[in-house]
Amino acid sequence: MPCLYITTNVNLDGVDTDPIFCETTTAVASIIGKPQHFVMVILKGSVPIFFNGNKEAAAYAEIVSMGGINTEVKRKLIATLGTILENKLSIPKTRFFLKVFDTTAGRTISKI
């Protein structure tokens, strides 16, 4: 189950977040190759973020998935999610950071 956790310093009071949830869920499912009903998205606003020497609109996100992550997937996630946040919350792509974690990476399979 992929889980996307987005934290931003943008105040979300009065913002219709439904399109953000819908677009990010669709993007994550499509890019990672998992069914949409397995994708969880958490969005938290008004979190103090200081980046590049200022407090302008910025976002930090983490995505955790059980498989489906490779270099190309990471690139697509960063580009697509950055575009969504830029279009919906006016967060420049240059002020968005995504941490990607695959829980199956580095696992060794026992042949017992």
UniProtKB/TrEMBL annotation:
Coiled coil stretches, renumbered: none
InterPro entries assigned to the protein according to its UniProt record, in alphabetical order: Macrophage_inhib_fac (IPR001398), Tautomerase/MIF_sf (IPR014347)
One Gene Ontology cellular component: extracellular space
GO molecular function: phenylpyruvate tautomerase activity
Domain of life assignment: Eukaryota
Record-stated family: Belongs to the MIF family.
Protein name, as recorded: Macrophage migration inhibitory factor
Annotated source species: Rubroshorea leprosula
